[in-house]
Amino acid sequence: MQIPWIVKYQYAATLFFVTIALTKVTCFQFNFPSFPDDSNLWVSKNSSIFLNAIQVSPDIRGPIHHYSGRVFYVEPYQLWKEKNNQNQIASFNTTFVLNITPETTPGGEGLAFILTSDRTVPENSDGQWIGIVNATSNGTSQPGILAVEFDTRHSFTEDGPDNHVGININSINSIQQVSLINIRLNLSSGQDVKFHIQYINDTISVFGAMSGTSEESMETLLVSSPLNFSSFLQNEVYFGFSASTSNYT
After folding, report:
1. Which CATH class is domain 2-244?
2. What does the alpha-carbon distance between residue 155 and residue 148 come to, in Å, rounded to a whole number?
3. pLDDT tens-digit profile of 196-212?
């Protein structure tokens, strides 16, 4: 039987959802208890829905090296609008579950929750770029992207350790990051890991726990400094995920 093999050896860019929900004051919200198909999702070429999960980069027999992919909720979200010469920014929150089992040591490369107005997967965004940016767009205003990265491998000098969470703006370099080693939260344990992300009062907070923990009991992993989204994001963005593999999978 092929299915048990696929389940057992899910690789680092594979994302399992139990629930994802986003809300705002105008009642923009959605919830996926499971993923029987790609209805209401925008799925890139290298991504798919399989085994009731979003596979952000492909889960296939044979080589799975050097891929990147993206998946988004199909409708855009109005993140901010101008009123009385000031930009009013909405708030949001999301809860999701991911499951990563490495096929190499360490696993790699990682996965990110992203907000961007451009759903296109950047060329050459595999490997350390996690489908967020590439060598040309990294650190420029071109991407117009915010990412909360769940990184499974130390890929370059400025990168965090093999198991860390970071907040990135238009770059693969995190403006803030935290190692999960001392928190006993292993991104690539092969077990379900639950995360909750909220943005309110210009601040992003990231909470996490092994699946089965209530949201009230989740540990605070990271709280950002104040971020003005309107300074680097378009007023309408898509919510979704990006991921990549390299020689590490």
Report:
1. mainly beta
2. 16
3. 999 999 999 999 998 88
